[in-house]
Design goal:
Elements: E1 8-14, H1 20-35, E2 42-46, E3 52-55, H2 66-71, E4 75-78, E5 86-88, E6 91-98, H3 109-126, E7 131-133, H4 138-143, E8 159-161, E9 164-173, E10 178-185, H5 202-215, H6 219-223, H7 229-243, E11 246-250, H8 255-269, H9 272-275
Parallel strand pairs: 1-2, 1-11, 3-4
Antiparallel strand pairs: 2-6, 3-5, 6-10, 7-8, 8-9, 9-10
Helix pairs in contact: 1-8, 3-7
Length: about 280
């Protein structure tokens, strides 16, 4: 360990695959509890069933092709974090949640992104990926926000392989604390997301799918073999512990967090008023 941070004990929570509304509600329930110091800062690993399109906090719902989404049996949810659309399937999703005075989360968004990126980079390297975490280029900054798909453009210190985006992350800084979550696509067709979004015509849809494949990568397509969710979760756990000087203690969500998550599903994340709040 490099001891850049005070030695600290966090929770490690792994939840079984769940619907998108529940996954996002759990992140917010943990954020509220951690902000009150009712629970320790938390590293969570999770997955999604069925596949779910998540759209950013300020992304228009009009980007979503509801008919195509329904035909495929996919869900849709709106995140409390920014950014563009992600299709959650065949991936490891992580969240890091804690109060604003937690040393590795403190400071500006970019500073905390950079710290957490070192853990994500270490995990990627441990999985055999020739990964990098670099500041955003001017070209990518110019493109950001023009496309509905998150994985088309790397943001600051996101993890790339040979210039292609591997891990996409987003952060929300609230009064309660800091939430950063992100996705590691393990395998599958990244271009599937274009089947859930609105395009002016089918040629535009095909072009968007090809652009995405040119700019983003899965673990399997990068190294030529599949890594299981369990292997990826173990690598993330070790990397966060070593990089941030953490003792990660396996735990379960508290009854209060579970109850609050259920409330947030009903009142927010599964409710059209939230999902469709920006047309």
């Amino acid at each position: 360990m490099n001891h850049r941070f005070p030695q600290n004990t966090w929770r490690l929570i792994q939840t079984p695959p769940a619907a998108g509304a529940w996954n996002m509600a759990v992140d917010e329930a943990i954020l509220e509890a951690a902000g009150r110091k009712d629970v320790p800062p938390t590293l969570r690993h999770f997955a999604w069933t069925p596949p779910c399109l998540s759209i950013g906090y300020a992304q228009p719902f009009g980007d979503v092709d509801v008919a195509r989404l329904s035909k495929r049996g996919w869900d849709v949810v709106r995140r409390i974090t920014g950014g563009r659309a992600i299709l959650h399937a065949d991936e490891l999703t992580y969240s890091i949640i804690g109060p604003q005075d937690e040393p590795c989360l403190a400071g500006s968004v970019i500073k905390s992104y950079q710290r957490l990126a070192q853990a994500l980079l270490r995990a990627s390297l441990a999985l055999g990926l020739p990964a990098e975490a670099l500041p955003k280029t001017r070209n990518s900054a110019d493109m950001e926000g023009r496309e509905p798909v998150c994985f088309e453009v790397p943001s600051h210190y996101e993890i790339t392989v040979h210039g292609k985006k591997l891990i996409g992350s987003a952060q929300a800084r609230k009064k309660a604390g800091v939430l950063q979550h992100g996705t590691l696509p393990l395998h599958g067709d990244l271009a599937r997301i274009t089947q859930a979004l609105v395009f002016p015509d089918e040629a535009s849809r095909r072009e968007a799918a090809q652009r995405l494949l040119n700019r983003a990568v899965t673990v399997e397509s990068a190294i030529g073999y599949r890594v299981s969710w369990e292997q990826a979760a173990a690598a993330f756990t070790r990397a966060f512990a070593e990089t941030l000087d953490l003792t990660l203690e396996p735990a379960k969500l508290t009854p209060a967090e579970l109850a609050r998550a259920d409330e947030l599903v009903d009142q927010k994340y599964a409710h059209p008023v939230w999902i469709e709040r920006i047309k």
